[in-house]
Amino acid sequence: MAQSAASASQGEGYLVTENLVKHFDDVAAVDEVSLSIRKGEIFALLGSSGCGKSTLLRMLAGFETPSSGRILLGGQDVVGMPPYVRPVNMMFQSYALFPHLSIWENVAFGLKREGLPKAEVQQRTDDMLNLVQLGAYAKRKPHQLSGGQQQRVALARSLAKRPKLLLLDEPLGALDKKLREQTQFELVNIIEKVGVTCVMVTHDQEEAMTMANRIAVMSKGRVLQVGSPEEVYEYPCNRFVADFIGHANLFDGKLSVDEVDRCAVATAIGEIHVGHGVSGALDMPVAVAIRPEKIGISKQRPAHVDHNLFQGRVKEIAYFGSYNTYIVQTLDGRKIKVTEANTDRHDLSDITWEDEVFFWWRNNSGVVLRD
Ligand SMILES: Nc1ncnc2c1ncn2[C@@H]1O[C@H](COP(=O)(O)OP(=O)(O)O)[C@@H](O)[C@H]1O
Ligand SMILES: [Mg+2]
Hints:
- By secondary structure, the chain is α+β, with helices and mostly antiparallel strands.
- It folds into 2 domains: about 5-240, 3-Layer(aba) Sandwich (Rossmann fold), CATH 3.40.50.300; about 250-370, CATH 2.40.50.100.
- It has 9 helices and 20 strands.
- Helix 3 packs across helix 4 (about 120-130), helix 3 runs parallel beside helix 5 (about 145-160) and helix 4 (about 120-130) crosses helix 5 (about 145-160).
- The model is unreliable at about 1-10 (pLDDT under 50).
- Magnesium ion binds near residues 53, 54 and 201.
């Protein structure tokens, strides 16, 4: 969670970066990044455009030289090692298959260039095409395959050389949404079957959540938080992460109670109770983050709820098929987002525009953020 970014360089990582920095002129595109990635892990670098993901990946590949810091792969410092010597393969967003070569030749290309014996080239290429379930397409040209299939050829080509580290830069960026979702699972299955350690870059939080074992959330060259998809979603370390991963309602306030296993925050809508301690100073400014799906909503006052219960007026409703979203305006004028799953299609909500509603959540649904 919050502390794992700082302590990442300890422990037995297979790929370790220590205080890695890359300056372009006087801008730090990558700023003091320390990560520890386990063998066989699928690790995502997640952040918006320009935050330094590709630069970090390119340093791992050897296409950029760090301004300072170390990169250890299997205990060996690889900084200064040219890309082709590193046991690393990078698959680019535009995966650039050779258009005039068959699928089989595309996958075999790198192996032949390495000068492997003919029989081994044959065996490995066949194995890789079978692995990505394209054995039957070996003789086709890239343009005769769908985008998703081409993606799998590119992956087969990257894996054929048996890299110890596979780097994927926005691997599904060229595919449309539906195909992307399907291909996400296919890629994960293949990568897990091979067991290769993988660092992938994406700006798409759903993609990171679906594919990765752990995620590093980046902003402005820095890693803000490292954790499993569940950890970064349930326990974001600060406002940026809370808001970047999914949506969070943020309530600013001051810490009013702080015990080992609970605390309270005085906010403009009232006191909010939270099911964890903060070990902070009373009256310190903090925010409470609540996910929209953790908020209950009803026109009737709920029975047995005696705190974290507030009132407001419904200003907007949107139906997204599997869930409804309500924008509720509180008495002090701020807007809260609430989502409600459509579990039963006969159970249409009776809430409509301008209704006065109650909304509430459980103590352990909130997270206190210090910054
Ligand atoms: N070769 C370069 N020369 C100068 N600036 C660069 C170069 N490559 C990247 N940058 C800058 O570094 C920052 C991070 O870029 P990049 O790593 O590509 O971000 P991301 O992949 O997260 O979108 C950006 O501000 C970008 O403009
Ligand atoms: Mg990029």
